[in-house]
Amino acid sequence: MTGESGEWAPENDAPDGWPVPLRGVTESVIATEGPNGLWNLAALGLHAGDPVTARTYGNTRTRRNFERRGGGVVQFVADPRTVVDAVLSIREEPEPVVPSADAWVEVDATRLDRWTESGTTIREWALTPEESEIVREGPTTINRGFAAVVEATVAASRLGVAGFDDEELRERLDFLASVVERAGGAREREAVARIEEYAEWDRPGN
């Protein structure tokens, strides 16, 4: 959007306590501490608002650790490989903040609601920011391949889930892989290779 002067105006400022602006559903990586003392990485969509909210689906480690520890560390990353690892693999680290994080914020998680859709229990959480840090300042360039990787992780995570058509999901993965091949860089192509490794899907021609 533009202001009266014709110059570009930001859509919104960062909410109080958050290191970056949030709009719509902002994708992030959440680190939550498990009973073994390690930090589990997972994807977490942040719904902009007051408060900022997030949802967990089913009996995930994030949900269990939210209930056990009361929060975690939200991170904003621009490395598609980190995104794929968080969505589709079980990745545990001794420290909560990954090297590719551009910013992070420690949050308290309070459950607001709970309901069931297609047999899956969904929980909505209010996230209250505590300590935060901007690790790297400056613009981050995002190519179309990165966006395709994010969409591909969503499709891959739904394979084998009741209520979704696996054939349609694999067709979508084929299309998104072709977008990465055309418009992505080396990191995006490596991320697609990791999706193929983690998910029940093979790229066309492989």
**And the CATH topology of the largest domain?**
Pnp Oxidase, Chain A
Count the DSSP helices.
5
> Average pLDDT value?
90
Structural class by secondary-structure content: alpha+beta
What's the end-to-end separation, in Å?
A: 43 Å
Corresponding CATH superfamily of the largest domain: Electron Transport, Fmn-binding Protein, Chain A
Low-confidence stretches: 1-11
Radius of gyration: 18 Å
Strand content of the residues, in percent? 25-35%
Order of helices and strands: EEEHEHEEEHHH
CATH architecture of the largest domain: Roll
Widest sheet, order of strands: 3-7-6-4-1-2-5
Number of separate strands = 7
Helical residue percent band: 25-40%
CATH class call of the largest domain: Mainly Beta
> What is the global morphology?
globular
State the domain count: 2
Structure description:
The chain is of the alpha+beta class. The protein folds into two domains: 25-134, Electron Transport, Fmn-binding Protein, Chain A (Pnp Oxidase, Chain A), CATH 2.30.110; 144-198, Methane Monooxygenase Hydroxylase, Chain G, domain 1. The chain has five helices and seven strands; from the N terminus they run E-E-E-H-E-H-E-E-E-H-H-H. It has a seven-stranded antiparallel sheet. A hairpin with a 2-residue loop joins strand 6 (101-117) and strand 7 (120-134). The longest helix is centred in the last third of the chain and has 18 residues, at 166-183. It is globular, with a radius of gyration of 18 Å. Mean pLDDT is 90; it is low at 1-11.
